[in-house]
Design a protein that fits this description.
Strand order of the largest sheet: 1-2-5-6
Shape: elongated
Distance between the termini: 71 Å
CATH topology of the largest domain: Herpes Virus-1
Number of helices: 7
Number of domains: 3
CATH class of the largest domain: Alpha Beta
Order of helices and strands: HHEEEEEEHEEEHEHHH
CATH architecture of the largest domain: 2-Layer Sandwich
Strand content: 5-15%
Structural class: alpha+beta
Length: about 220
Amino acid sequence: QLRQAIEECKRVILALPEHSERQKDAVVRLIHLRLKLQELKDPGEDEPNIRVVLEHRFYKEKSKSVKQMCDKCSTIIWGLIQTWYTCTGCYYRCHSKCLPLVSRPCVRAQVSHQAEYQLSICPESGLDSQDYRCAECRAPISLRGVPSEARQCDYTGLYYCSSCHWNDLAVVPARAIHNWDFEPRKVSRCSMRYLALMVSRPVLKLREINPLLFNYVEELVEIR
């Protein structure tokens, strides 16, 4: 019934005079109908407060006014009418309905178990090595954008779909160490979160990795 009402409302909007008060009222009604339909699709408020998925520890959010993006389906989380969760370890956010579909393990666990950087600059092995699928969710991808655009992560060198790679920018440690290059590069969502959690950890032994850098960067000589 709601879907029928939405379609009828669309027809009314198109039939009414442009920018008229009646058309504006119809648009508001259309928005309310769509929100109500979305509310029915989502689980109710009886969701548990804590959910554990792939080492994520998800807590149900109480805020209703904050508007976030879902890390799984890449759509807006409407806190006013939708139930959503945030991982306390890596701050992965998603709708309640998207929790069973989460495919990315918590990067906080990765930082705890193996706190080290990828130190090769964009170690690309090609889309064929990934079977032309996203490195994270395994969705089909292609450089031609059919069926989905392949986006390369400058940190891992792997290719991701647009849902797992939002063109976030981050400084890549390998480029900084080998080239003293701090220009932010496009990285996947997973890499961005991993780099953010690792940034304060003193794990880079610069004198072992690139001792020649001390000959060219005056500030490093002073620090040493």
